[in-house]
What we know:
CATH architecture of the largest domain: 3-Layer(aba) Sandwich
Mean pLDDT: 93
Number of domains: 2
Low-confidence stretches: 330-334
Number of helices: 12
Helix content: 25-40%
CATH topology of the largest domain: Isopropylmalate Dehydrogenase
Structural class: alpha/beta
CATH class of the largest domain: Alpha Beta
Oligomer: single chain
Amino acid sequence: MPASEPPLLGLIPGEPAGIGPELCVRLAHTPFAAPLLAIADAELLRDAASAIGLPLELLEPDATQVAPGQLRVLHRARAQASHFGQLDPRNAAYVHDSLLEGARLAAAGELSGLVTGPVHKGVLNDAGIAYTGTTELLAQQAGCEVVMMLASPKMRVALATTHLPLRAVPAAISAEGLRTTLEILHAALLSDFGILAPRIAVLGLNPHAGEGGHLGREEIDVIAPLLEQLRARGMDLIGPLPADTAFLPDKLAGFDAVLAMYHDQGLPVLKYSGFEQGTNITLGLPYVRVAVDHGTALDLAGSGHADASSLILAARQAHDFARRRHAHAPRLLV
């Protein structure tokens, strides 16, 4: 991609019965610097536009001039016509395969990144597709370790573990796993976010960060020794910190990101701080992937009342990350 050429981003609506398709229509009406290619059922996008009362012109994938209200589309058909608000397991493979198609194109360099809408985990599993989350799906497809981060204008929260039952979390907290997670997080803060000297707060696993071993020893036996090793390599790491005070505004002001040990330790705080202003970012992939931070909102689908702020922010972030990666990519001398 020439330095002057904006990155092409794949746009995947997600669950066809949810709000993802109409959010994509609203994004198509938003003045935006990066070209988008929707990987979706063309008729689904037309139905969504009609439902919310917005015009939409669908263009061929190789169209060069795109105006607000127009959207390039790589048509992939649903198995069954869908109805907003009504899940249908027969369309689960369409959702799953659209994500994998976008990932394949991004891995091949045909896309600079992916912007993804909300997926309904339950209906995919009901259809017999083993699915814990798009983060895990893309990591498996790429064959690499990744880190889930949710970001808002007020904070960035990465996760040491993602979609695990709470009882499985302590066994999943290992020095090797934390090392990989912190290395990926640190590298992404440098490359994607452009932070020259990232400062990362690391939460403890137990209440009060274990309270000196009285409430658990993971901080003493695993987390603190690993942080000391990484500090010796030059990483600026604070912790392990008690989770109940780490998110106070005066403390957050001193961190570039927070690493939480499990999903519901960090994400409720971030979502409370600004639910529609957050994004879900997959760190460590060979391409950019940014998603909305909310679900399918079946009760709002087709009503025209769904807020597109998270998808618009996701697209803008993906554009910024892709441009920054391209600008700093190594050049071959010939």
